[in-house]
Write a structure and sequence with these properties.
100 residues, alpha+beta, TATA-Binding Protein, 5-stranded antiparallel sheet
Length: 100
């Protein structure tokens, strides 16, 4: 699953906002029981592992000059939820990019 979000913030500002707010990602997952770990293998790539409801989902956020691309590997057991998950990712990621 890939979700692209346009922005006009520039890479550096997107990096700053994602870095300072990455701890909020777990709060955005319904049920409130998610464990999220993140790492930055490169300046423009944040890798994520989300563990919730007995499932582990890996993904990443790629930062480009005019968009952010969020990609997750959904396990087959969650594939039927893809439209709902895409909508949640789209709205919650936009909140992460908002000025705080």
């Amino acid at each position: 699953m890939r979700v692209a979000l346009p922005h006009n913030l520039g890479r550096e500002e997107v990096r700053r906002r994602l870095s300072s707010r990455s701890h909020e990602i777990g709060d955005m997952i319904p049920g409130g029981m998610a464990q999220v770990t993140s790492s930055w293998p490169t300046d423009d790539l944040m890798e994520l592992t989300v563990c919730a409801l007995g499932q582990t989902i890996t993904g990443d956020i790629e930062i480009y000059e005019a968009q952010v691309v969020i990609a997750f590997d959904l396990p087959p057991t969650l594939s039927f939820l893809r439209p709902m998950i895409e909508g949640a990712v789209r709205s919650n990621a936009a909140r992460l990019l908002e000025k705080k």
